[in-house]
Amino acid sequence: MSRSIPDRPLESLADTVSRHGLSARKSLGQHFLLDSNLCAKIARAAAPVDQVTVLEIGPGPGGLTRALLAAGARRVVAVERDQRCVAALADLVRAWPERLEIIAADALKLALDERLSGPVKIVANLPYNIGTALLIRWLEAPERYVSLTLMFQKEVAARLTAAPGTKDYGRLSILAQWRCETRKLFDVSAKAFTPPPKVTSTVIQLIPRPVPLFPAEPAALARVTAAAFGQRRKMMRAAMKGLVADPENFLIANGVDPRARAETLEIEGFCALARALPEFAAPRPK
Question: Is 145:54 a contact under the CB 8 Å cutoff?
C-alpha cells in the first residue's frame, strides 16, 4: 500500500493559498474547495485508491489532491492549467515524491491515455465551465476507468441521474446511464468553496458497465438523442424531422408512439431508434 504520510511536513492549505496569492478566477470556472474534512470525504467515496492511478482535473491549490494522497493513492495525475496553482502543487510533489505528477495543460486539449497506466479512477471537483464537456468525452470509452467520482453543479448531477418522465431527464441522462451505473452521493453547500458559487454542488459516482445497457452505435445514439431533445416540447414525430425521411413510420416500426415526447421514452427505446437509424435516415445535404 502507498504511504499516506508525506515525506516532509506540509503547511496548511490556507497558508499555501496565502503564500502563493491564489484567488479563484471566474474565467477558469474556479471555486476552491478548502475544507479538508470534505476533501477527505470525497476521497473516501472513491476508495479504495491504493491500487490505482487517480486522474484529477482542476486540482487548484490541492485540497482534494492532498486527501487522495493521504488516502494512499498509488499515483495521482493532476491536470491544472492555472500556472499559479501549478506552483502551489509543487509543494505536494516534494512531499509525496514519485506519487504525484502535475500536468500543466488544458484538460480539454490533452490526450491523456499515454500518461495513464494500469487501472484508473477519475476523482475531481470539476471546473464548472468544462465539466460536462469532459464527461461526454469520457463517456465515449468509460470502460477505460474503474470509476468516476465527480463533483458537478447540482442541476447537472440531477440530469445525470434522472429517470424517464422527470423534468431533469434528457440527453445527458441517457448517454451516462447507457454506459454507466450512476448514483448521487451527497450535496455540497456553496459555503464550502472560496469564493462560494451561486449554486449547490453534488458529488456523484459513475461505475462503467461491462457492456452498454442496450446495443447501439454511439454515434447513432448521439444523433437520435440530439434530435429528440433539441426541442423537447415537440412530439417525437416532429423532433425526428430532418433526421429520418419518414418520422411516423420510423417511430411506429420501433415501438415508439409518434405523439410521445422525448422525456417519456426510456433508454431502451432510444437505443432501438439508434439501431434502426441507418435504414430510415434521411440523406444528408451535400
Answer: no
- Residue 165 Rama label (left phi>0; alpha psi -120 to 50; beta): left
The torsion region of residue 268 among left (phi > 0), alpha (psi -120 to 50) and beta comes to alpha
pLDDT of 59-80, one tens digit each?
989 999 999 999 999 999 999 9
pLDDT at residue 283, as a whole number: 63
Strand partners, 4: none
Number of domains within the chain: 2
Let me know whether 41 and 150 are in one domain.
Answer: yes
Q: Which domain holds residue 269?
A: 218-280
- Could you give the 3-state DSSP secondary structure of residue 278? helix
Cα–Cα distance for residue pair 78/76, rounded to 1 Å? 6
Phi/psi for 94 (5° steps) reads -70, -30
Phi-psi region of 219 (alpha: psi -120 to 50; beta: other; left: phi over 0): alpha
For the chain, how are helix, strand and coil distributed in percent, rounded to 5? 40, 20, 40
d(CA 201, CA 187): 6
pTM: 0.91
